[in-house]
Amino acid sequence: MVDFPLPTFSRLLDAVLDGATHRHSTLHGEAHWRAVSFTALALAPDVPGADPLVGLLFGLIHDSQRLNDGGDPQHGPRAARFTHALFDDGLLPLSTARLDALVRAVHDHTFGGRSDDPTVALCWDADRLNLWRCGIRPDPAFLSTPAARERRVIDAHRNLPGQHTPWAQLYGMLSRLEIP
Description:
Layout: H1 6-19, H2 30-43, H3 52-61, H4 75-88, H5 96-108, H6 118-128, H7 146-149, H8 151-156, H9 167-175
Helix pairs in contact: 2-3, 2-6, 2-9, 3-5, 3-6, 4-5, 5-6
């Protein structure tokens, strides 16, 4: 059962879309955010201990503060500050543990690396599985979870599933998953 009601998610979505700096980008804009959220939700059942709610929220927020499609290494830290602002405004009613995981995943996703934390790993793998949009085949060496490193999973993301999935449908996917 989701402890993040749909009206709350809708208010958060509106705030992120209103506060986004590069929302219409074909590489890092809203379609990419939806694809990452979709991937996180699809991958979550195969990543023991991962929190799919944080995966959905990561997809929504992680690139929302990009300034451009080129080198922008501070977009993760900016998005982490934005995440804290959303929390402070009451739009992210999360436990401290969930907020910490989300902020860490958002902040550090720009710096590469892998994670042993199942939730952070889920987030980063969901983003990296969508590198196809840039003409890059995801390299299993840079994926954190065994589930994401499977060749069939990598290849299944070639067509960027989820990029056209409405946010309400993504929320519906979340509501059908077991939330830790």
